[in-house]
Amino acid sequence: MTRLAREFHSVVCIKQVPDSAQIRVHPVTNTIMRQGVPTIINPYDLFALEEAMRLRDEYGGTVTVLTMGPPMAEDALRRALGLGANRAVLITDRRFAGSDTLATSFALSKALTRIGEEHPIDIVFTGKQTIDGDTAQVGPGIARRLGLNQLTYVAAIDALDRDGATITLRRRSEGGVQVLRSRLPCLITMLEDTNTLRRGTIQDMLRAARAPVTTWSAEEAGIADPMQCGLRGSPTVVKRVFAPRPRADKAEMVVVEGKTPAQTADAVLDLLFAQSPNLEAALSARFKS
Amino acid sequence: MPVEHFDAIVVGAGPSGNAAAYTMGKAGMNVLQIDRGEYPGSKNVQGAILYSDALERMIPDFRETAPLERHVVEQRFWMLDEKSHTGTHHRSDSFNEERPNRYTILRAQFDKWFAKQVRAAGVTLITETTVIELVRNAEGRVIGVLTDREGGPVHADVVVLGEGVNGLVAQRSGLRPELRPQHVALAVKETHFLPEETIRERFNLSDENEGVVIEVLGSVSSGMVGTGFLYTNRESISIGVGCLVSDFAEKQIPPYALLDRFKNHPSVRPLLKGAEMKEYVAHLIPEGGYDAIPKLTGDGWLIVGDAGQFVNAVHREGSNLAMTTGRIAGECLARLKAEGRPATEANLKVYRDALEQSFVLKDLRKYRKIPKLLKQNRQLFTTWPAVINRSMQAFLRVDGRDKRAKEAEILRGLKTARGNWLNVAADMVKVARAWR
Ligand SMILES: Cc1cc2nc3c(=O)[nH]c(=O)nc-3n(C[C@H](O)[C@H](O)[C@H](O)COP(=O)(O)OP(=O)(O)OC[C@H]3O[C@@H](n4cnc5c(N)ncnc54)[C@H](O)[C@@H]3O)c2cc1C
């Protein structure tokens, strides 16, 4: 199979998420207060984007960023263009509202099919997971629908053989590191801290500010059956949202004096025993037996 | 090699830079705007008062889309001592008009909205990019900017500096001297979350659109030249205090300690009860007034907003002066461009002239003597608020003493506070003259 005839093409799926460090739960209604919370590109996706751009810089080709979201998700795409991506596609439609991971991977895989028709895709990248959902399901969901080899938790890409249309990479798994070779096209979810995000040049920024962002409705993205989108296409049920209580009462700082480490330890134990009188008896019983 | 050439480059996407870029974009100029924040407003201090007039002159229907918190229906002025406040209120139903005059806003959201209008006017905006310095040609004329990104300088016919109070680009490029500590105030501010209904009840408001502003003088500044303030947003309260940097340096009072004391003042604490702190910010405010205004124009550059010290500290107006100077600069540059005249220092004189004709320089000129007066008359921040509170106490307490004796005590208090009646009279005259 010769693929050299055309340009190498990666698509990076990114998501605009609220900056979780700045989110508050409404003390009365227990709902998440999104208003005024700045949005960012899901931080894990940036490792995928950088990896795609690194391959492009080494092997040539283009990097497309794709997102599904409200119209304002265009900001995330422009930011990605400013970092150096070549092209941006936004799929946005009221009917996408309320999508869970199943509906999201459905919509994205349709858009990817449409992108691929115009410009065949070699690698689909996603981040490891999102910081607002934490499911890590969308990448694998896309791979399954598009029949791509699924390479999750990738720590490094070692080689790309464009003639043979294969990629060699390292993947983190429970037991250690797997070195894998896969055929292309494939889907890669990148691990965090696997590369260092670049800063776009002034030219990248100027291009990003003015480049058109391709925007597709559900229909334009090739979705014929809206029943598979948004809330209706989402079997996930959110039963309850709540702000978790802190696990323990507020920590207290105690100062103990002791000349030797053993004395200090004894002083700490005395304090603990003073707080929970049963502890001393329970512990001495155990040490005796 | 320059990357590209624009008609104008605007440094900063605060109110002044936005106004300038918007005006020029609307006039059809090819404008590049550069801000160092992650998004416009991300570096800007939250919670402020928006004066409708300045914005309305550019975007008459801003109320339809701008993120506004509450319109101000009541203003309170407080003179604080350690335990009490004496003050006056003005509340009016006529502030509940169709086009309200003042709003509380959250700057981060407002600036983002404004930037969106600027982009819609055709301006190219790039963020997360810091302008390092101005680029000049062999004759010394400013021809562009150098940023902290790779890829070389960007050129333009004129550079508009709306970079805010620090004015580092202008300073680094030798256009103005370093900021003087006696010309800037350091303000610290916190935003506290409170449910909308609580704010409504606590501040005696009819609905989620009405708001209150409290301006505070006296013990809040611990003897320094400064003031405190509290604004109601829709679901939060902005509270802060600002004093001259030179005073902070001299008194060695940590700004947060000052704000903590203010928050724990018996008149303030109940207003914040149960609130959850959302953010803490510190920012400078130019308060040097008319005499601290730097050189505003030169060959290929001009200065707008806080960078030009355009703040009316007496009335706490800043963003409106920023927008007005930005708009006027934009109009002047668009006119020069249309007439095919270059932005030389001589041709930019129209900018200074237009500012002199506007409320901006008229007001700053009017209060020209105020900064010096305040610095030299600390009793306005210390003795007077204390005496006024003590007098009110004496007047209101019923304790068996006859009224004439009380009045005599109050008058004695006034006199001894300033040593003699001459000093009391002198204070009044000084304030009146500086105000004139
Ligand atoms: C605590 C506080 C409360 C205030 N309350 C009020 C109020 O209630 N009402 C009111 O009218 N005014 C208020 N002001 C004053 C008001 O905020 C300012 O006057 C106004 O923001 C000035 O606008 P500006 O555009 O000149 O500067 P700024 O708003 O400071 O904007 C400057 C912009 O330039 C960017 N920038 C700076 N340097 C560079 C660089 N080198 N390269 C790229 N970008 C750069 C910054 O990121 C920033 O976005 C308050 C100020 C403070 C500090």
Question: What does this 3D model show about the protein?
Answer:
The complex is a heterodimer of chains A (289) and B (436). Chain A is of the alpha/beta class. Chain A has two domains: 9-233, Rossmann fold (3-Layer(aba) Sandwich), CATH 3.40.50; 247-289, no CATH class. Chain A is built from seven helices and 13 strands. In chain A, a hairpin with a 2-residue loop joins β10 (166-173) and β11. In chain A, α2 (74-83) runs antiparallel to α5 and α6 (261-275) crosses α7. Chain A is elongated, with a radius of gyration of 25 Å. With 436 residues, chain B is of the alpha/beta class. Chain B folds into three domains: 5-70 and 100-179 and 292-367, FAD/NAD(P)-binding domain (3-Layer(bba) Sandwich), CATH 3.50.50; 181-286, D-Amino Acid Oxidase, Chain A, domain 2, CATH 3.30.9.90; 372-435. In chain B, α1 packs parallel to α3 (107-120), α1 packs parallel to α9 (319-338) and α13 packs antiparallel against α14. The longest helix of chain B has 20 residues, at 319-338. The complex binds flavin-adenine dinucleotide. Flavin-adenine dinucleotide (FAD) is lined by residues 11-17, 34-37, 43-45, 48-49, 130-131, 162-164, 168-169, 187, 189, 240, 283, 285, 305-307, 311, 316-320, 322 of chain B.
Secondary structure elements and pairings:
The complex is a heterodimer of chains A (289) and B (436).
Chain A: E1 9-13, E2 16-18, E3 24-25, E4 32-33, E5 39-41, H1 43-59, E6 62-68, H2 74-83, E7 87-91, H3 101-118, E8 123-127, H4 138-146, E9 149-161, E10 166-173, E11 176-183, E12 186-190, H5 202-210, E13 214-216, H6 261-275, H7 277-288
Parallel strand pairs in A: 1-6, 1-8, 6-7, 7-13, 8-12, 9-12
Antiparallel strand pairs in A: 2-5, 3-4, 9-10, 10-11
Helix pairs in contact in A: 2-5, 3-4, 6-7
Chain B: E1 5-11, H1 15-26, E2 31-34, E3 48-51, H2 52-56, E4 70-80, E5 85-91, E6 102-105, H3 107-120, E7 124-126, E8 131-136, E9 142-147, E10 154-161, H4 168-172, E11 184-193, H5 196-202, E12 210-218, E13 226-232, E14 236-244, H6 245-251, H7 255-263, H8 269-272, E15 276-286, E16 297-298, E17 301-303, H9 319-338, H10 349-357, H11 359-366, H12 370-376, H13 383-396, H14 403-417, H15 421-435
Parallel strand pairs in B: 1-2, 1-10, 2-7, 4-12, 10-17
Antiparallel strand pairs in B: 3-6, 4-5, 4-6, 8-9, 9-10, 11-14, 11-15, 12-13, 13-14, 16-17
Helix pairs in contact in B: 1-3, 1-9, 9-10, 13-14
The complex binds flavin-adenine dinucleotide.
Residues 11-17, 34-37, 43-45, 48-49, 130-131, 162-164, 168-169, 187, 189, 240, 283, 285, 305-307, 311, 316-320, 322 of chain B line the site of flavin-adenine dinucleotide.
Pfam family, one (chain B): ETF-QO_FixC_C
Keywords (chain B): FAD, Flavoprotein, Oxidoreductase
Family (chain B): Belongs to the ETF-QO/FixC family.
